[in-house]
Every structure is written in structure tokens, then in C-alpha cells.
Design brief:
The chain has 110 residues and is an alpha+beta fold. The protein has a single domain, classed as Tetrahydropterin Synthase, Chain A (2-Layer Sandwich). It has a 4-stranded antiparallel sheet, covered by helices on one side. The longest helix has 12 residues. The mean pLDDT is 97. It binds zinc ion. The site of zinc ion has 4 residues, from strand 2. Zinc ion binds next to strand 2.
Length: 110
């Protein structure tokens, strides 16, 4: 089994719709560190699990310097962002979204 890990920094804005009062409801920004884990039993014809630049294209291309509320069709919590990234890449099995030094969400496929 092969695994590749791609880490990227994504600067973006979001505001959260929550069921309780929170400062996170105001539009604000983060420099998210998004770590994408992909694996495959066999390498593709190019000898890769997944091209690192393809992963970057999907994640940074869609999210970097955007208002996430405008480009994602769900409440853009770190958890939801992690699941969305995982769903965009067929070989991906785990995504870590670090919102700040102390706040990290991880989504893993069952
Ligand atoms: Zn936030």
C-alpha cells in the first residue's frame, strides 16, 4: 500500500451559521493548514498514487483566497471542509484541517 501526504496553506474567509450565539458567526479569516492523505494499493501509469499538483489544484484552486460561504454549499466548519476535500479526490482517505495552532478537525473515510 502506498500513501502520499500533501500539506497546503489556504487563506480564506468564512462565517458560521450556528445554533448558539458565537463570534464565529461574523465574517473572519483563517490560514488553514490542510493535510490530505491519499493511498492506493497500486500506482497509476505515471508511477503515482496521486499527483501532488492535482491535490493542490483541487484544494487551493477551489478554496484559496475565497469566501468559503460563497464557494461551498454547506456550513463551512473545519469538519465539513475536511469531508468535502476528501470527497473531491478518489484516492483520499483522510483529511486534516488545522484552523489555528490549537484547533484541528480530521475526517476519515470509514
Ligand atoms: Zn473560523
Amino acid at each position: 500500500m502506498y500513501t502520499v501526504i500533501k500539506r497546503m496553506e489556504v487563506s480564506a474567509a468564512h462565517s458560521l451559521r450556528l445554533s448558539y450565539p458565537s463570534k464565529c458567526e461574523n465574517l473572519h479569516g483563517h490560514n488553514w493548514i490542510i493535510t490530505v492523505y491519499c493511498r492506493s494499493r497500486e500506482l497509476n501509469a505515471d508511477g503515482m498514487v496521486e499527483d501532488f499538483s492535482h491535490i493542490k489544484e483541487v484544494v487551493k484552486g477551489c478554496l484559496d483566497h475565497k469566501n468559503l460561504n460563497e464557494v461551498l454549499p454547506f456550513n463551512p466548519t473545519a469538519e465539513n471542509i475536511a469531508r468535502w476535500v476528501c470527497e473531491q479526490i478518489p484516492t483520499c482517505f483522510k483529511v486534516q484541517v488545522q484552523e489555528s495552532e490549537s484547533n484541528i478537525a480530521v475526517y476519515e473515510k470509514d
